[in-house]
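Fold it.
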Amino acid sequence: MTQLPVRRPQRGITLVESLVAIVVMALGILGILGVQMRTLTDTQAGVRRAQAIRLIEDLGERLQNNPDALGNLSAYTATPTSSDNCASTACAPDRLATYDIKQWRTSVSDALPGSQVIVFIPQGGPRQLGVLIGWSETRYNQDGKSFTTAEKAALTAPLTVSGTNSAGAAVNCPANLICHLQYIQPTQRCTPWGLGGGALYCPN
């Protein structure tokens, strides 16, 4: 009588089980990478907003150092292409304002490449200066592709800000940009010379 072979219990894992394990592990790694990328994007957005706030604070400090910033608000709303070098020589308040805004706009371009800046005198607030800085956020949809124009507009809509300038016109955040709007208070340490006004007297 022929003796049947004894079946031994299965040991190890089959090829199918190995493939399933690899697929599950790959999906887990992709999920972790997706969370990390989203966290990195949110962190970058926070860093850019912090940079924008610090840049506006820097402009506010420049206004504080100008003895007649309040009397030269219109100079801060311009985009000068040239100015006196007020870092090495003393400048009058109007020339200092032109120098400060030119240097400040350069600082914004260096810190936030591709950004846009709008400096305006708000309506009903001649003793204030509105500063709006807009920057671009690089984001991708769930398929790893860049957002379309409509998707970018929908994404940035809750994050847009707007104001009103002295002429009553709206000052809006540029399309597809995320903006930060802040109002700063200028100073005026110069006083009119004499009761009739005229030239300004600026004490040292």
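The chain has one domain: 17-139+147-187.
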